């Protein structure tokens, strides 16, 4: 028998051992009601204005940068646009962390890409679990900071839905002063805009804020995100970004999504999702197999069930796809449900109620 050469032996060790991010799309499912990726349920409409695809795009399309800067109230030189916030998560590692020397720190349960990106680059991970109320354990963070160059905090946090207390973010920024970047992931901030810490940029040279068009802007398929920081940090990130991170159609649509009129529509969308969230949450609280519905400031809610596996599997078989969070730190029994249309929320409730009656 011919023994095949195993190409895996050529791969980097950390890549051989890497478990790729289990994105909602990779997990599959045969759904009609997609509530597992925190997307907006309805596609917004756009036109293609830029048709000259023979030319390379701008690295940092000026319209997109200027409009995003105006939207958040910062200067254009404090904005970097990237291929989704996920690329910005990775650019921070590329710019600040040396394999075998530096570490990144994050606080589970939280977004999975901090870990995946660190692993991909062979960067040590300091994992400091949150306290029981999901706030960062500042004391533990203080004792784990040796060689840490980058701290990820997610506020509001995915998948728990809570805002991180701003005074604790200040504590972490103080600990990290002159030592590490603190990246605050505000992917869901449009659902609780008052909680943004963008105005802190003038006080903290080591603060980076991550943003995206994937959630409240309803453009997950566009792949467009942002890093907000002071100009010296932006300049470092621009050194390591791909030469053409955004294709011309992406920049074209992102610019349209950031006009004042489009931002008003986004705000209406976010308000509608927030209303649906409180209706869904109230209905869930009345179900006997629901142990807890956690408060959320986002477009999803985390729910603890007495029979999470049964709920997940039964709804999956009916084409209602939720996100199982049970392998996350401390989240046994928990499923995450994205807020869809009112009809989609109803179908979730009815499907869960039917399990109840089927079991009696
Ligand atoms: C969805 C999400 C992102 C990724 O956003 P993209 O712009 O789609 O890459 C980043 N952080 C958190 C917490 C998210 O939930």
Automatic annotation (TrEMBL):
<dbReference type="GO" id="GO:0030170">
    <property type="term" value="F:pyridoxal phosphate binding"/>
</dbReference>
<feature type="modified residue" description="N6-(pyridoxal phosphate)lysine">
    <location>
        <position position="215"/>
    </location>
</feature>
<feature type="domain" description="Aminotransferase class I/classII large">
    <location>
        <begin position="49"/>
        <end position="352"/>
    </location>
</feature>
<dbReference type="Pfam" id="PF00155">
    <property type="entry name" value="Aminotran_1_2"/>
</dbReference>
<keyword id="KW-0368">Histidine biosynthesis</keyword>
<comment type="subunit">
    <text>Homodimer.</text>
</comment>
<protein>
    <recommendedName>
        <fullName>Histidinol-phosphate aminotransferase</fullName>
        <ecNumber>2.6.1.9</ecNumber>
    </recommendedName>
</protein>
<keyword id="KW-0663">Pyridoxal phosphate</keyword>
<dbReference type="InterPro" id="IPR015424">
    <property type="entry name" value="PyrdxlP-dep_Trfase"/>
</dbReference>
<keyword id="KW-0032">Aminotransferase</keyword>
<dbReference type="InterPro" id="IPR005861">
    <property type="entry name" value="HisP_aminotrans"/>
</dbReference>
<dbReference type="InterPro" id="IPR004839">
    <property type="entry name" value="Aminotransferase_I/II_large"/>
</dbReference>
<dbReference type="InterPro" id="IPR001917">
    <property type="entry name" value="Aminotrans_II_pyridoxalP_BS"/>
</dbReference>
<keyword id="KW-0028">Amino-acid biosynthesis</keyword>
<keyword id="KW-0808">Transferase</keyword>
<comment type="pathway">
    <text>Amino-acid biosynthesis; L-histidine biosynthesis; L-histidine from 5-phospho-alpha-D-ribose 1-diphosphate: step 7/9.</text>
</comment>
<dbReference type="InterPro" id="IPR015421">
    <property type="entry name" value="PyrdxlP-dep_Trfase_major"/>
</dbReference>
<dbReference type="GO" id="GO:0000105">
    <property type="term" value="P:L-histidine biosynthetic process"/>
</dbReference>
<comment type="similarity">
    <text>Belongs to the class-II pyridoxal-phosphate-dependent aminotransferase family. Histidinol-phosphate aminotransferase subfamily.</text>
</comment>
<dbReference type="InterPro" id="IPR015422">
    <property type="entry name" value="PyrdxlP-dep_Trfase_small"/>
</dbReference>
<dbReference type="GO" id="GO:0004400">
    <property type="term" value="F:histidinol-phosphate transaminase activity"/>
</dbReference>
């Amino acid at each position: 028998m011919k023994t095949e050469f195993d190409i895996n032996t050529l791969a980097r060790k950390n890549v051989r051992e890497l478990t790729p991010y289990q994105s909602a799309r990779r997990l599959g499912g045969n759904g009609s009601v997609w509530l597992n990726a925190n997307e907006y349920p309805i596609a917004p409409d756009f036109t293609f204005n830029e048709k000259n695809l023979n030319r390379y795009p701008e690295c940092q399309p000026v319209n997109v940068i200027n409009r995003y800067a105006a939207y958040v109230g910062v200067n254009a030189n404090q904005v970097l646009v990237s291929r989704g916030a996920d690329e910005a998560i990775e650019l921070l590692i590329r710019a600040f962390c040396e394999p075998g020397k530096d570490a990144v720190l994050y606080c589970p349960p939280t977004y999975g890409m901090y870990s995946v990106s660190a692993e991909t680059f062979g960067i040590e991970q300091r994992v400091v679990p949150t306290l029981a109320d999901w706030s960062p354990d500042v004391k533990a963070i203080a004792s784990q900071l040796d060689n840490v160059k980058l701290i990820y905090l997610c506020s509001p946090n995915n998948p728990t839905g809570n805002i991180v207390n701003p005074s604790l973010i200040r504590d972490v920024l103080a600990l990290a002063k002159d030592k590490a970047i603190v990246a605050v992931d505000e992917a869901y901030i449009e659902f609780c805009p008052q909680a943004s810490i963008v105005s802190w940029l003038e006080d903290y040279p080591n603060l980076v804020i991550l943003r995206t068009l994937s959630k409240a802007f309803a453009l997950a398929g566009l792949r467009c995100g942002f890093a907000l920081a002071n100009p010296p940090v932006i300049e470092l990130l621009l050194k390591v970004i791909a030469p053409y991170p955004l294709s011309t159609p992406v920049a074209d649509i992102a610019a349209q999504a950031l006009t004042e009129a489009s931002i008003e529509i986004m705000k209406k969308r976010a308000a509608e999702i927030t209303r649906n969230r409180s209706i869904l949450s109230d209905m869930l609280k009345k179900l006997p197999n629901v142990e807890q519905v956690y408060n959320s400031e986002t477009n999803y809610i985390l729910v603890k069930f007495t029979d999470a596996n049964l709920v997940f599997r039964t709804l999956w078989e009916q084409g209602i796809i939720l996100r199982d969070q049970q392998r996350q730190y401390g989240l046994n029994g928990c499923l995450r449900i994205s807020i869809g249309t009112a009809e989609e929320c109803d179908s979730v409730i009815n499907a869960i109620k039917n399990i109840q009656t089927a079991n009696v």
